[in-house]
Amino acid sequence: MFLTRTEYDRGVNTFSPEGRLFQVEYAIEAIKLGSTAIGLKTKEGVVLAVEKRITSPLLEPSSVEKIMEIDDHIGCAMSGLIADARTLVEHARVETQNHRFSYGEPMTVESTTQALCDLALRFGEGDEESMSRPFGVSLLIAGHDEHGPSLYYTDPSGTFWQCNAKAIGSGSEGADSSLQEQYNKELTLQEAETIALSILKQVMEEKVTPNNVDIAKVAPTYHLYTPSEAWFQSGASPSSSSPSSYTFPIIKETEEQGTWKRN
Fold first, then answer.
1. What does the domain layout of the chain look like in residue ranges?
2. Between 2.60.40.10, 3.40.50.720, 2.60.200.30, 3.60.20.10, what CATH number should domain 36-234 receive?
3. What is the distance between the alpha carbons of residues 26 and 223, in angstroms, rounded to a whole number?
4. Is 36 an annotated catalytic residue?
5. Taking phi first (over 0 means left), then psi (-120 to 50 degrees means alpha), and beta for anything else, what does residue 29 get?
6. Ranges for the Proteasome alpha-type subunits domain (predicted)?
7. Considering 6, 14, 36, 188, which one is annotated as catalytic?
């Protein structure tokens, strides 16, 4: 089996006798090493929350982008290679703007996801070295269009699914289990934000701080919370010790309850 695998895992478009594309499987495995990202859909909109791994105290936290805007009604969270994600996001931005210019209306979330996955499928085409391998990134695409809020999940194979809630990355197994227990379709947007942050706290190896978590919502327009917006009510200072000053009090509550189980 080892010889068979090495024989067929070099070409990105070469199937093994078992019908497998090993390079795509390797790319999917790479996602499991990435930071954890969580998405939840509610009737009001969609919430995205992502772990930001700050590997050095010399690193500027604001330079680590794990949630990006595609259009004013679509955003995405990522896990995997950030450079690959930027390529996909740039492609999606061009597609949405071309659609808006041509038809005078915003592109639907599903069509945007389809356009993005079409690019993900182009690996190994022709002699273009830039597309000589699958993209090593998975995305959670959140949006709000004429059909209401929606959340899509994509993987390196170019496949996408619509979800009510989904977790990707290194902590996805434990996070998905927690989502199955806590998610219901009647959640409010604020409750979804609280659940997303509490689950991130369970699966992250580092203590949750304003600098190592990104959170955004699409309800109905995209908005990425700044650290001050995400953690404190308007007018509160970071030094405030009042629990009521927290926008998402679950973080304060879980800190008082003790250390969560790591997954």
1. 36-234
2. 3.60.20.10
3. 33
4. yes
5. alpha
6. 8-30
7. 36
